[in-house]
Amino acid sequence: METPDAASPTMTGEGCLRTSAQLDPCPVSGCPFTRTRDPFTDKATSAPFKCSAQGDFDQPAFMADGDITIGGIFPLHYRVELPTTDYTNKPSAAQCQGFDSRAFRWALAMRLAIDEINNNTDLLPNHTLGYRIFDSCATPVTAQRAVLAVLNDQESAQSSTCSGGGPLLGIIGESGSSQSIVVSRTMETFKIPMISYFSTCSCLSDRKQFPTFFRVVPSDDYQVKAVAQLLRRFGWTWIGVVTEDHDYGRFALQGLKREIENTDICLAYHEMIPKDFRRERVLEILNVMRKSTARVVVVFSGEGEFYPFLSEFMHQNITGIQWIASEAWVTASILAETYPFLAGTIGFAVRQGYVPGLKEYLTTVNPQRYPSNPLVQELWGALYGCSAFPSSTGTQLPLCTGQETLSNQHSAYMNTSSPRVTYNVYKAVHAIAYSLHNLFQCVPGNGPFENLSCPDISNIHPWQLQHYLQEVSFSVSGEKINFDARGDSIPSYDLINWQRHSNGDIEFVKVGLYDGARDAGRELVIQDQAIVWPGNQSKAPLSVCSDSCTPGFRKATRNGEPLCCFDCVPCDSGKISNQTDSIDCMACPEEFWSNTNGTACIPKIIEFLSHRDTMGIVLMVTAIAGSCLTIAVLAIFLHHRGTPIVRINNSELSFFILLSLTLCFLCALIFIGEPTSWSCMLRHTAFSITFSLCISCILGKTLVVLAAFTATRPGNNVMKWLGPVQQRIIIFSCTLVQMIICTAWLIASPPFPYRNTQYQHSKIILDCSVGSDLAFWCVLGYIGLLACVCFILAFLARKLPGNFNEAKYITFSMLIFCAVWLAFVPAYVSSPGKFTTAVEIFAILASSFGLLFCLFAPKCYIILLKPEKNTKQHLMGKAVK
């Protein structure tokens, strides 16, 4: 059949529909025309005909006439059994199964609200509201049939004409998001606004797709934020998710994934409860839950889909699960009564409120008062397991009076102490009523439409009501109600904990709240001490893939596994982590190092050659002993200065050598201790000048020895050029060159204290930087040059006659001196930290001792132990044997 235009009625689905442009009832004589196609020309033709239903919609409903009609769609049954189709016979009607007394209470709340409004002289005076309530059986297909039945008049299924009822301006429905999507898209064609009391899918906030949709329940965008904050609050980083296979479950999962993205929360698994319940598929899901290490399971599902799933779960002996309930089932009394293992469940429920007269109204409903309403008969069968009238079906229940007393034990139906969804239904009806009231109060010339016009009260269009719905603001039970630009209400949830009493009953206890109007990060408030966890535990269960990494360790992800699964790796040296589950270790500042546990940065050990170190003490004692020994030799020489062995070896130069050696020993002490600016400059210059002085004296003595033996040749007058004055000039000149080099060094780039933090990362090595490497090596090179010249000259004079040829000892002393300092260079370059200084001190002391022993030990031996050899004849080799 061709799609009708805006002005013509048509028959579709269950009967005669009125369009958004034609909301007044069809004439009593019937719908005058129907559009058909000529089979030969394929052109549309119009022919007079009477309205007739194309099929029966035999689902029971509540109906009442009024000036304005409001539709209502509720999931009065859990599920529907679709008929078999053999394509040879007309399929029978779908059978709804599993009466839901909780949803029946919602439907009665709509009737109660409408009756209250009709009896209110202040709200909608002179106007009455009618209603048509149908069952969706919690299924989108049946919800589609229900909305088509709502759009038709109450008697369309029994009459061949369109009966006269009030115009349909709005619909209250639905609970399931998938059903609401179907209903809203159908209503959009006719511009009829729809207010949902329990559909939370975030997809319904899209005004482009659902321009006529409103709701008095928060969107799942806020619920998933609340769930994500709850998971973070209790440290549940490894979770499973079970959803229904509908838009509600799919969009809730998407929202939750978006909220936990870039956090330390991971999904261990995600499973969907199949639309068509199959035990094999449910067993597969339960097997995944049994094998998983995730102990926290978030469930986004309606109670109708979740009820049979829990029935299988109960028989599988799976324990230790912490259930996180969505608002769709967190206050489902039938689940709490049927499955006691759900004690400890925690989840977010829509805000509760007060519905005046609800309890009394519910107690007035019984089979005797409504004998022809099969829903009431099913209610009695669900509550008491009996029937007030013989059943027409094959299932026979025991007969009862139909006037049995309702009590609080029937909590699924009689839960009136803290109504939530029921309260939402109550608010939705009042939202339409207040919007109509504002519409009727419109003053011509001050209206919201074109030319400041007001709606025609005798012909109100649904889109006009929608405008007032968008702007409505009123209060019910102390709560302010309004809608934002997307048709959503203010986000607010109660945190509910399922707690078992001693008698076995489960109570829904409020232990916190989530208020989306609060500042970011402060929306969730929890009373931790009020929560009772599964197994009556007072401590929240753990649900992690890997245990937390303690301070001193960092998390290292495992290849191919979620971020929540990791290994704990100790921090590298020089890095710390002072928090649990650190992603990375922090490097310590340059002058700090990590402690043994890697949890804190501590100041680095400052290392230098100290007077308190064992090595420093040994070197200091050795230097002092060397200087004392040198002074002792000097004293011996002074005491025996008149003996031949002292005089023949040039006593003045010997005294100079001993004084310079004493200074060489003492300058080693400057290298010990914490480096300062003055000590750094002094240690290198003192060392170089004293050694230059010492080698210069030895060089002068070598020249004198060489000249003395060559002067014995006839005509050789060389000794007159090497007298005492000339010797002093040679010593002063050679030393002056070194002093000039040191002066230039100190002026251009002097040595300075240096904190070396790179050689050993755990220590700060205090040392003296030489400043100018060129000057340092020039100083050493000059000393080496003097030593080489001295060595060569002494080597040439080694075979000169005489029992005491000092050239031999000078040669040997220079050989030791050069060997020590040649070995010093590689040792100095490669030695770490304070050992660099120790090597330099060792070279100074070793070379000083070498000079002292080689030059003066033989003389002291003769002076002290062999005085008979201390004669001129013996020294000249002329002694009589």
Automatic annotation (TrEMBL):
It comes from Astyanax mexicanus (Blind cave fish). It is found in: Cell membrane. Coiled coil: none annotated. This is Olfactory receptor C family, v2. Residues 615-879 form the G-protein coupled receptors family 3 profile domain. Keywords: Cell membrane, G-protein coupled receptor, Glycoprotein, Membrane, Receptor, Signal, Transducer, Transmembrane, Transmembrane helix. Its main location: membrane. Belongs to the G-protein coupled receptor 3 family. SUPFAM superfamilies: Periplasmic binding protein-like I. It comes from the Eukaryota. Pfam families: 7tm_3 (PF00003), ANF_receptor (PF01094), NCD3G (PF07562). CDD domains: 7tmC_V2R_pheromone, PBP1_CaSR. InterPro entries: ANF_lig-bd_rcpt, GPCR_3, GPCR_3_9-Cys_dom, GPCR_3_9-Cys_sf, GPCR_3_C, GPCR_3_Ca_sens_rcpt-rel, GPCR_3_CS, GPCR_3_vmron_rcpt_2. It is a multi-pass membrane protein. The chain crosses the membrane at residues 615-638, 653-673, 685-709, 729-748, 774-797, 809-829, 841-864. GO terms for cellular component: plasma membrane. GO terms for molecular function: G protein-coupled receptor activity.
